[in-house]
Amino acid sequence: MRTLDQLAHTLAQLDGRGYPSYKQVSGPWGDADLMLALDHVQGDPFATPSRLRVRLSPAIHELPRELYATATRRMALCDFLLRRFAGAVSGATDRHGSGKSGEIWVDAGDAEILLRSGCAFVGDDLELRLRVGLPAQGRRILGRRAARLLTDELPAAARRVAWSHVDQAAAQRFVELAEDHAYVQSLLPERGLVAFVRDGALLPRASGVSSRPLRNAVPFESPPSLRVTLPTLHHGDVTGMGLPVGVTLITGGGFHGKTTLLEAICHGIDPHVPGDGREWVVTSPDAVELRSEDGRSVVGVDLRPFIADLPGDHGTERFSTPDASGSTSLAASIMEALELGATALLLDEDGCATNLLIRDARMQALVARETITPLIDRVRQLHGQAGVSTVLVVGGSGDYLEVADTVILMQDYRPLEVTARAREVAAAHPTGRAVLPPRGEIVPTPRHPRLRSFDPRRGQRTKVRARGLRELQLGEQTIDLGALEQLCDDSQARGIGALLSWLHAHGRAGASLRALVDQALEAAQEHGLYAIDPLPELAGVRRHELAAAINRLRSLELE
């Protein structure tokens, strides 16, 4: 392998040459202990920055093996080290020059701890992946500046993640917190819980676009009747509210914290960094937040549990439309979530089509023939027959009081368990609404996508690009991810694009949708996201978000 000294010498010789001459430094440089690899060299200072890897041997990184002995520990430690590396390279960034000259990008996270392609263990070696804008003035190489950056500053920054340089106690806390999140998640089913919110948690955020906790926020305090104590591996027993399985309503006046609680539960699927305030909000990994989406595409979904007997004898057993209504889109999303194995549905009345949630007595009396069976008439069946819980934020649909197992009233950001009172209110104020009997079982029909649906080509070139968190371009089409609110990081959108492209090339023809997404995620877990697509800015997702992106493909075809 060529040494870093040889790289410095080569770069000095390239000083002043045309930018394409940078191609001469492609490949690995260094030695057995520290290797710098330029995997893709940009052809122009204004183009997408070059892709680099820095690999450190155990003799350099010195990280204790027990800290990366399991998948959860590796994920957390790599997330911690990426944040450390991002801080270390910030001093090396030098934006003087043309285009993206001298800029450095490390895909470090925000509030959530995620599986990322930017850092991984290769055996016991640690590999850091990043993008660098190779220095240039105009379109002429700044070779000496590049030599200083690549052979001095970047290796020095990489060494800052070594065990002897990091805050070892902070690293230990980071890893142990993520491990305890996974451990508590594993306890939820046996305790009959959908989610757990520890006493003292700070749920409100500083703003709608900030992940930071609100200053002077009211600490969470669980209602005594819902208070549970759970063991952990590293933090002793933790006490807080256990949200039971079944049908749970979260209600209360406006601005009292209903949606804030639901949002925290929605994002409790992922571990959070120490100090976030939601570190001990832990939610079932198969809990799925749903909302209505006017105009979304629906392909081949069996809607009969919610929508049937359409005028003109049109069936809904394999329903498709390029332009779904709010009620149809929500019905489709429920059935799609069940198809992928959801154990809990999380809904906010504000974001859901009213006619799929409820049909009151007056409308029942006025409209004799209705094609929609609202969720209120299915929600008990969902739990009793399918084992799927529902958590619903509700402020105006009082009929749900009659079907709820648990009712939580939010008052000044404090939860009160008022189930008994809710039943008294329901009995004292009957609405006269007729409860429709169950019409068949709620059994989702497996669908089998054709792999050509995931074609990432645009013309003769592959085109996969995320535009922020809510939009993904895949080949000729754009996927709207706006309703997938449990996504939390732009790199997850990029990860979805990479996984869809991988499925186009490697998916098992004829497999069901669930089998396909599981195939992709198992490959990513076994070999790493970088093996799916060698990009340094990918983050992991659940099967639910990957399948949801597939369900929104306007090119989706089924066998």
Walk me through this protein's architecture.
The chain is about 30% helix and about 20% strand. Helix 12 crosses helix 13. It is globular, with a radius of gyration of 26 Å. The chain has 3 domains: about 160 residues, no CATH class; about 140 residues, no CATH class; about 100 residues, no CATH class. It starts with a helix and ends in an 8-residue tail after the last helix. A hairpin with a 2-residue loop joins strand 21 and strand 22. It has 15 helices and 25 strands. With about 550 residues, the chain is an alpha+beta fold. The strands form 7 sheets. Strands 1, 2, 3, 4, 5 and 6 form a 6-stranded antiparallel β-sheet that branches. A 6-stranded mixed β-sheet has the order 14-17-18-12-19-20, with helices on both faces. It has a 4-stranded antiparallel β-sheet with strand order 10-11-9-13, with helices on both faces.
